[in-house]
Model the fold of this input.
Amino acid sequence: MLPRLCALLSIGLMLLQSAYASPLRSPGPFSERVHQTQIDATLDTDTHRVNAQMTLVWTNTSVQTLTNMPFHLYLNAFAHTQTTFIQESNGGQLRNDAREGDDQDNFGYVLVTALSDASGNDLMPNWKMDDDIADLTLPAPLAPGESVTLNFSFVSQLPKVYARSGHNGDTFNFVAQWFPKPGVFFNGQWNNHRYHANSEYFADFGNYDVRLTAPSEFVVGATGVLVEKTEQDGNTTHHYMAEDVHDFVWVADSKFGEASTEYEGITIRLLYQPPLDEESVQNQLDAAAATFRWFHEHVGYYPHSTMTLVQPPEDADGASGMEYPTLVTTITNLDKSPFQEMAAMVTIHEVGHNYWQGIMASNEFEESWLDEGINSYTEGRIMAESFGQPYAFHIGPLNVSMPYGHHLATMGARVTDPVNTPSWEYATTGAYGLNSYSKPATILATAERIWGVEKMDRVLKGYYQAFAFKHPTTQDFLSVAATVDEDMAKFLDNALNTLQTIDLRAYRMSSDKADSRGGFDLTSDPANPTFTAPEETDSWQHSVTLLREGELMVPGVNVNLVYADGHVETRYWQMTPDKAWEKWQWRTDSELVEVLVDPQFSVLLDGNFANNNKITGENSKQAWRWVQSMFISMQSAVSLLLAW
Amino acid sequence: MMKAFKTVWMCKWAALLTLVIEWLILLPAFVLLMKFGNQYVVADINATPIGSPEFLAVFFGAMKSSDGFSLGLMSFALLLPILLLTKLALTAGLTAQMQTGNVRLVGWFSDAGRLFWPALGLFLRWLVVPLVLVGMMALVTMLLPDEWTWVKAGLLLFGWLLSLSWFMHALNINVQRERLSLWRGGKSLFKNFVTVLGFMLIFALLLALCGGMNLLLGEHNLDASSGMWLGYVFSFLVALLVRFVVIYWQAVHVHWWQKTA
Done:
């Protein structure tokens, strides 16, 4: 009787918790939920160490019987100087941060101290650890549809943070990639790469039920929803639940300030570093809300009920600008700036990842552009369309928007790898960055400008509808694009999977006074044909040659033809794969003074916009506008600044 | 103050000549940027308004594809330090001439050459002054509430102007005798402290006026309908105004030196 009563009470308690707060905005499941993970973790804030017990129930959703199961032990990437991550990252560097030195504090690890199955049988002899990956020989073959229960005890030592996970040597603890995490059985085989310097992650969806214990003065944030808080002996246990997510992270800092807002059933919570003025706080909450608004309209539904924004302190910059399911980190400086929107932009970017990585969960080891590239593209659109800020940087007349920022990065870089390349196989870290972020964003922006925003929205929406929670690949994205427009899909395929480039040029231009028809009249007397000398007329004879360099094709672009009388004629340059040039010859009553290829700058992938135009001598004297302003401004600035 | 105005008027040709010298120094960069800018950066101004993302895309494209354009930008960057050093020498020379009460062009250039190294030495030693004064002001701003933006900017400007005044006081001593000029300049500054504070208000207003004129000039030049020659005339007038403001600052300091010397 008593066990039944306990079971009933437990179910009642779970229902009560569900009523208190649900991790989902509408009933799931949204994913296969390959695993159910329970963790009970305690953070020692002095040593920045986590002691935890984990019960993992993993279900074989494949059609094959499995005999082993690989795991990621990501924190071991920071265990010593010979790990793949540290070797590939020049001794431990990521973005602008680096390992501070060789002190013990700068190293970290995750060690499994005990492992057993559901019956309590010791599985440690089956556990083979190799730095940041491990392999477990299963106690028995696991048939399709069967589940295995594994009980882990493990210790996670956080390093001083320079690459996403870690502490700042003080009160800030960012506990990410901290527990033994199973690989993904994907396309008939295990996918369990090492932690590479140029890569993020790949994981299966599941549910998490996690109890986090930390000193009571610490504010805690985590993936999912807080369902209960209990205090005992100066420590507080925070009970979090998350459903249909592929990762679980948490953060604890005694210095956090808190603010929150609601957007259509999503609680947006900001954990910031005080002091932070109200306008900057609101700016962050608005940026997150604007992101959800845009995605709901243009892509699809966000199923989770929470989004936590975490501002790392300045001395934990390595943790900043990173995405995890339902929890992201912002940049360290959230002060709203009058001339640049970096604080909002990064938050929009990271919240956007909750779609392209949080919900789609593509393989970032092998196809990083699917997350970073699509997200960099949508981030620019959210800034302009939903957040009302088209410029990432704006000072006086100087403005840089996101699409042009990505264009500049793309055209300034050497083409060494196709965009779609496994992250560790790029020629350089710079090539990984370019091909994961700016170049795919530029490719998508070009497709949007050539085929229209409506078609691009259909691609994004179709991609979400067909592949949310299903680990899509580049081929899946292209297959959706093909259903919208075959030509666009072909362009995307070539731009993403090959080294093809494009550079449009206004190659030659002339405009001269036209002569009347003169010479012999062959229809007159054959013995003595009449001759009339050609005479100059009032009309002008124009000749324009346009050139497409590179193999990448777009259907065509507009060309502006500007005449001396101010009239602007727009013609369409239809391109064909077998002809790299186009020549136009015609007459008008006014002199042709300028040719501008692609005046809307539709082909953002164009390698050089400076050769898109030709101007006749008389009209090519406009450089004074900025040269003179630049010289006088600089001269005045030097004079006034030093009073010399 | 009237005495200072008289000195400024006495230096009117020096103002004009300084401007000509400055423009001659920058001329190679100007020619290169105009030539290659016209060739590569100019596009339909309606399609690429100056400063717009489209303009910047064309601008950076030109940097990538035109060695001449890149050379123009590089030469501009290289000529700026030369411009700075020349201005320093001319300022030292003009200060020495102002002290005599009779500004002669030959004497000015001669003094500029003679006093260049002492003035440069003073300038390098002086660098510590703004570091301390502006640094102190920056510390004070940290104690103020975030929303006091104008007060914070004012404090930093105050620290900077005080440092500049210190330099001018020291330069007046330096052109006479280099020894301990920075130290003695500081003493002179604090002797005249109240007067300096009052004058700094006037100078700050003049700075704002010049800044405003520069902005107006920029807006005029960026406007697609504005003409080139009017742009050049406005540029000349703004630059000349700036020179007169700077010479006024120098003249006031010369008169303070004359009073205390």
Notes: The two ends of chain A are 95 Å apart (CA to CA).
